[in-house]
Amino acid sequence: MGFADSVSATATKMQKQVNDKAIEIASDLFNTVVTKTPVGESKTRGQLINNWWTAEGVGNYNTSYSPSFNTSGTGSYSRIAALKDSQEFIGKDGAVSLTNSVPYAYRAEYFGWNFSAPEPRWRGTAPYAMVRNSLTAIAAKYKGTV
């Protein structure tokens, strides 16, 4: 193997390492978001936690929706686990995203439940901040490692 082949092999190895680390951090973040997602106690119990969807590629966002009411979030966790084989970051600026298309996901993240809602279970709760809290936790966890 010549010098050029050696450099190419080293570059390929480094790109794989960067890709694997990026996917590891993204997966850790996404799993933490799901873990911090409230399950709820209403007729929609388990719908929010089970509707986290991943996508790969710059500008790609998965807006899928599942009517599943699985309170363990199994669907979300399995979609995140599928990222482990991703090569999104090899040799390019890649992107992975996590979205939730449940109509009340934004409200749960930023506002909690509506103070004026007629159902008592929705009155006066604070924002769940599952994404913000997860970002803070993962940034602290990986600080200095990347």
SSE map:
Blueprint (H helix, E strand, L loop, with lengths): L2 H34 L15 E5 L17 H8 L14 E5 L4 H6 L19 H13 L4
Antiparallel strand pairs: 1-2
Work out the radius of gyration: 19 Å
Strand order of the largest sheet: 1-2
Helix and strand string, N-terminal first? HEHEHH
Biggest beta-sheet profile:
2 strands, antiparallel
Through-space gap between termini: 31 Å
Helix content: 40-55%
Can you characterise this structure?
There is one protein chain. The chain has 146 residues and is mainly alpha-helical. It has one domain. It is 42% helix and 7% strand. It has 4 helices and 2 strands, in the order H-E-H-E-H-H. The protein has helices spanning 3-36, 74-81, 105-110, 130-142, and strands spanning 52-56, 96-100. The protein has a two-stranded antiparallel ribbon with strand order 1-2. Helix 1 (3-36) packs antiparallel against helix 2 (74-81) and helix 1 (3-36) crosses helix 4 (130-142). The two termini are 31 Å apart.
